[in-house]
Design brief:
Length: 176
């Protein structure tokens, strides 16, 4: 098996800074924004984005976590999945622009589950999607609003995102 690094620490940092600027520009500022990360690495990325966006805008951007375990369509195939806690920032999501944050977008099924999970919590005014890596191969009509990097890959390859807080390393690799 061969592994190649496609994003290094500086590349990830630049991508997150660009995504932060794009989100703020799209929203016309920081008002009524909530970032919700999809566990595990999406939560880390959401918190990082919140810090970067707060530094740019001067307004604290709330970030939390959205557990999608019970909304997944493959739960019967993986019954041992353990739920992660959902952490909705104070003020909730009703009437807010929610930006879902995840590390890799592949089939789109996790995002569909996240949309269902959001509906069970509240009614945001809009939902946007920020992804560090879009690798293609969508099975559902889901398209990200903010993309760190498009990385074409085959279905047989595996894209791995490693973040310092979760893995002790900072890189995106492809295993063939």
């Amino acid at each position: 098996m061969s592994t190649r690094t496609v994003l290094h620490e500086a590349d990830i940092s630049r991508a997150l800074t660009r995504i932060a600027h794009e989100i703020l520009e799209s929203n016309r500022g920081a008002e009524n924004l909530v970032l919700l990360g999809i566990p595990t690495r999406g939560v880390t990325l959401a918190h990082r984005l919140g810090v970067v966006m707060s530094g740019i805008s001067g307004v604290e951007i709330p970030a939390g976590a959205l557990d999608i375990t019970l909304f997944r369509d493959d739960l019967s195939h993986h019954p041992t999945r353990s739920p992660h806690p959902t952490e909705i920032p104070a003020g909730g999501i009703d009437g807010k622009t929610v930006v879902l944050v995840d590390d890799v977008l592949f089939s789109g099924r996790s995002i569909r589950a996240a949309l269902d999970a959001i509906q069970s919590i509240g009614r945001p005014s809009a939902v946007r999607l920020a992804i560090l890596v879009d690798r293609g191969h969508r099975e559902l009509p889901i398209r990200p609003d903010f993309i760190g990097k498009n990385i074409p890959s085959s279905r047989q390859e595996r894209v791995n995102v490693r973040l310092r807080e979760d893995d002790g390393a900072e890189e995106v690799t492809i295993e063939a």
